[in-house]
Amino acid sequence: PESRIVLHGLSMGGGIVLHLSDKPMNGVKCLIADAPTPGIASFFENVSGQVFKSDGEAVARCALADFRKQTGMDASDFNVVERIKNGKYPVLLSAGSEEHLEELFQQIEQNNPCDTDIILLPGCNHGNGMYKQTEMYQQKIKEFIHKNV
Q1: Per-residue pLDDT reduced to its tens digit, 52-72
Q2: For the CA atoms of the chain, what is the radius of gyration?
Q3: Of 1, 83, 84, 123, whose CB is crowded by the most CB atoms within 10 A?
Q4: What is the spatial distance between Cα 50 and Cα 121, in angstroms, rounded to a whole number?
């Protein structure tokens, strides 16, 4: 109970951290979602499009159908904006400016009943901000943790 835990995830891990935002967890003080995937369906769609190019949409449909078959759940049910509406923790959202996650971050910020901080790292793309803008990135995380832990 006296623990002071920060959950931090990158990419799909960032999406998972946000999916936990509405769960009461002993000792958890805040969440950091780095370049978070907004949901499982969008993850399948994005990756399929990048890997399979023109066949990406068909591959994503098959993968999502298989996900539904294997889990009995629809991947579209996993949506961070819906989960954050019952959020229990302050959240730091981080992404590179080249990822274009501003709209998602704005939706999360508007729907999170707790504080939400945002950092967009100039000139960075998916997950590389911590390496390309190290000082800015680390400073924001230190400030956020100091404020919330």
Answers
A1: 999 999 999 999 999 899 999
A2: 16
A3: 84
A4: 23
